[in-house]
Specification:
single chain; mainly alpha; four-stranded antiparallel β-sheet; three-stranded antiparallel β-sheet; 24 helices; 9 strands
Length: about 700
Amino acid sequence: GGGNRNVGRQAGNVGWDTGTTVVANPLADPMRSRDLLQQPDHTSCFHNSVFQEGPGDAVVPTDKAGHTPSSSDPATSASIAKITALEKEKEAAGGSSHGSGRAAGQEFDDAGASERAKARWDFLRTAVFDGRVRALLLSADYSVVTATFARLFPQDFDRALPVFNHNKVDQLLIRLDYHHAMYSKAYTKHKRMTKRPRHRLGCCGLYGRKVDSMAYHLQRVHELEEAVKEARKETVAEGRTPSWIVLFKTQQAAAIASQSVILAEDNHEFTVHPAPGPEEVNWQALNFSYKQRTLRSIIVQPLLLLLIAFPIGLFSGALMQLDFLFCPVHRCEAPDGTIRLSNTGCEPNDVDLSNDVEQAFKWEWYCADKHFFTQYLSKLITGWIPSLLVTLWQVLVLPVTMIVLVQASGSCVSLSQVDEKVATYIFWHNAGQVFLGGMLGSAFAQQINQFFEAGPAAAVDILGTYLPASSNFFLTYLLFRTLVLVPFRMMIPHLAVRMYIFRRWLFRCSRAALSPREKAFLYTPTSVRMGFEVGMALLVFLVVMSFSVVAPIMPVVGVGYMCASWVLWRHAVLYIYVRKYESGGLMWPIIFKIMLFIYCIFGIFVACVFAVKRAYVQALLLLFLVPIFLYKFNAYAYYRFARSTLHVPLRLANGAPPAQLDARCYIPPPMNEHSMGWHPEWMKPWTGWNIPSAYCVT
């Protein structure tokens, strides 16, 4: 606990430890006996016995009458001596040569299994009632995390749960799910055929030995089920990570622990952070140590900067002004001295100044007005293709690449943090490439011939004069999103619908049977790509605010887009999309900061308009006062409101009733018995959007 996302959940802090073990008390709670028996420190006493079958199983030590036995040192010594004697007898029975010795050892195993188990439980009971197990709670040598919080919060500390690296189990479950799907498909096909389906084992079924599909996939399912069980045991024994989840009995203790400096100034042993809720833990990020995350950030940050700096807006903006590049350009001077560019000719009262301008590039066939095809091609290239190019880049390439890079950095411990970073990066990409690149690309395409004539010295004047002409590109872009993209998403709101249409009619035309699993896949609900959608909406807000002065029609189109989007998202959130996680509204502080930045850009654009109109005093006032005022307002809003979103306020935490969270909530689905809660996309921030598996970046 500690963050608003954990109010009422009593969750603890996510910390990074040096690799110590968890502390548990079998008498206080059955779950703690499970934690105790999992530890490698007890291997010498328990000999990897069958006390732990899987996460969630636990046993409370009592005698047959239900009472706890008395304890003493002689009893402990007797239990240890009994275990040792039984082990020696086992070695003697199994040490004979040839088959008779092995058979005798097997008989001894069957006969003495219950005796050995009883002796070990006697030893455990004695250690519990002697207080040696309880004393481990305060032993820093056994667990620094548990000892620290048990001393600081003796009444409110519940337990510390180690995080296990379950990647191997999850990958086996993905393979198991694949063979389940293939078996279901083969079984459905078999019901419609007289022969059992067969396939080749080679790549894509093109070569290799032919096998019976149903028998092969069923065999693989049984093999992988056993492999998953073994992988779970191996993960519990050897898969501990540096991360822990600490649980408390009161929200007040969790809030204090998450907001305090627990250790000395170097924080060498571990640091604490507010823990996410059980449904939004980004488990793959908890597998990394501090050094691993630092190294990953060093590698990923340049790739993120390269992706943000990719000049898609420059290309699309230049494509928008292709007529000015290839067709004869007329520089027209109006009677008031204003100069404009046109590829269709000047007005009767204008003066044509383009006679002395030499055209660097010319394409006579493209500029011919006599042919219908050239006119259609010109409208297509300069009108719809630039907007379509930007939209395809933003919808298909950018979000998937961005989320893979963010996950590869390992810096987000919750799925909501992943979405927050994706929203921020997508907005900066849109602001730098689509917005700024679109303006520069339009001006460059219009004035490339003058660049060759006047040289680089006149570049600033040319850009300042003709930047407002780039509003045509953004006006077309907003119209495309409003009139085309929003209605299209109303009909096909997510990728699963497209796959449903494609696969349903494809299989209908081919008369292939759909298995029940494939039908369920076609109706699978998806989640909202919150980070992507927020970043795209903020781009529209940036465009409308920036060009609202130089292009008064832009706010009208922007309001139309927002109204259409409101209808779309109101219906989609209520009836189409499903909730992936609950962050408690932590996306709003990110939106608030970006909106203040947009207001700052708006003030700068208005100042530029005043400067062009020779109103220098007003331009200077806006240029200096607007950024300072917005900066101060952002600082005020942060200290007044935003800090309470990072942690639960202590007054609210003090009023929350005591509660104890079931520790099984923080067991990842691959480690649950029968993999309860697992599905192929359980660990992805966005469900149903064909995001690559997390293991491509871990």
